[in-house]
Amino acid sequence: MRWNIRRPASSCCRRNDLLAARFVRKCASLLHGGDVSAAFLQWTVCAAGQRIGRFAVGLLAAIVLLAIIAAPSQAFAHAALVTTEPADGAVLAQSPAQLSLTFSEPVSPLVLTLVRPDGTAIPLTSFRLNGQTIEIDNPQTLGSGTHVLSWRVISADGHPVGGSVLFSIGAPSAAPAVSEAVDRGLRSAIWIGKVFLYVGLFLGVGGAFAIAWLAKGGRSGQRFVIAAILCGLVAAPLSLGFQGLDALGAPLVRLAQPGVWRAGLGTSFGWTVLVALVALGLGLLSLVGPRGGAKLSALAGLAGVGAALAASGHASAAEPQWLTRPMVFLHGAGIAFWAGALRPLGLAMRWKPVEAAPFLRRFSQAILLVVAMLAATGIVLAIIQVQAPAALLETAYGRLLLVKLALLFFLFTLAATNRWKLTGPAEAGETEVQRRLVRSIAIEMLIVLAIFGVAAGWRFTPPPRALAIAAAQPALVHIHTPKAMADLSITPGHVGPVAASIVIMTGDFGPLDAEQVTLVLSKPDSGIEPIKRAATKPGDGIWRVDGLVVPVPGRWTARLDILISDFEMVKIEAPIDIRP
């Protein structure tokens, strides 16, 4: 078939090509000079183009909506603090020798600080990890007054969690101030860094794969792909530094400090950045290296994109990981295949239709399988993360997912139209259809960028799965007296129907064969009369109380009446915190 399609190159198009070439050279120099913000700005101007400006308004609106949804007024927790020793608000007769924090999942401590009543901060550097509990040595005898145990840890999904516990020695005093304000500037930097990292991985490495495997010798879009990869190479280390700042709760001005980068590398996101840098390097090598190894480098880079996403994050941290990590890997690689091919294909269709015909044919043949894989893996991951349909509206994570689903609906609809209505005539050489396909691909690119923005917003929102795990954690208390002691667990540890389990022992940890155990919960400050329930002993040595309802949250007093014999009863009690 003879192609005879000629379109004059406008000055606008020539100007875009010049801008792209200048940008590649500028990015190379900026990587040495450090002017990252200028590189980001130039890439944004160059990538947006001048013929799709009317769609930028829609993209901007989507990103503004994202900012509103993804910027809650308080920081969300990814691992929940279950119990503390001393308990929050406890008043102790003497200084404790040890402090402890128990979480809903294993964590890694970042910063542990004890703030005395006069505001003096004492770093707590001696601690041990015992399962989900951090056991902290108290370095000195504490005086009277209210102290604050401030903690900051990394949860299993790689995100930092922080908080404070107050306890008093002798009598309470005015609590020293501990700031936990949300750093909006840092959160914006984290979001922007993640978006540009996605650009580098999906549009850059994915574009390199498309050029090597689908274009097969064609070089349309190569300068754009190199620019995207260079942006990713800048964004990846910056994102690691932002992660370190967030982990330590430090401001942006401390970005250059070595401890910040060590903290970032110590999180699971550190692996994501390291693998992403390798993937970006492989993608760039496939474009500028020897032609003989381009396909192998591009394929390895595409695999690296999936591996980078699977190394950290909400989805990869979910159980069962034998399922979730491969799903994330396939999902990430599929996104890179689809999104990466769009810009090179659009430019080939615009300027080199003869070259674009086999490119379009290969892409259209493979995209059906890729879309099916993306849909299957996305559904599986969404079910694991959301769990209940109500969470789509009740949580920030769910609302972001709804925004993403709406964008995906438009994307899939547009892609289906391209595949079933425009691809055939475009391959046959119909000039007007080719122009329509180029415009449609440009719109797809904008929708993809908006989806990147939504996905980056998940960095600040724990999935409903994690919230459900935290909500299901029991409230625990250990009661110790010379005559008897007990471990009391109320599950779940929040208001509503609960069940209690009680393990009783003698004061020296020996077995205690009681005839009867009664649980008494009281909260006089709320005007609630004591709730008494007799415990049963099914046969496993643990006393249980079922059918119990805790009506209000807060600090309750839990008392155990232990009938040892007809003539001896021991009563022991301690405060226990019930969550809302």
TrEMBL record:
Domain Copper resistance protein D: 358-458
GO-annotated biological processes: copper ion transport; response to copper ion
Keywords: Cell membrane, Copper, Membrane, Metal-binding, Signal, Transmembrane, Transmembrane helix
Keyword Cell wall biogenesis/degradation applies: no
Family annotation (InterPro entries): CopC/D (IPR032694), CopC_dom (IPR007348), Cu-R_CopD_dom (IPR008457), Cu-Rt/internalin_Ig-like (IPR014755), Ig_E-set (IPR014756)
Chief location of this protein within or outside the cell: membrane
Signal peptide, first to last residue: none
Molecular-function annotations in GO: copper ion binding
Cellular location(s): Cell membrane
GO cellular component labels: periplasmic space; plasma membrane
Transmembrane region(s): 52-71, 195-215, 224-245, 265-289, 296-315, 327-345, 366-384, 396-416, 437-458
Ranges for domain CopC: 78-169
Membrane topology qualifier: Multi-pass membrane protein
Name the record gives this protein: Copper resistance protein CopC
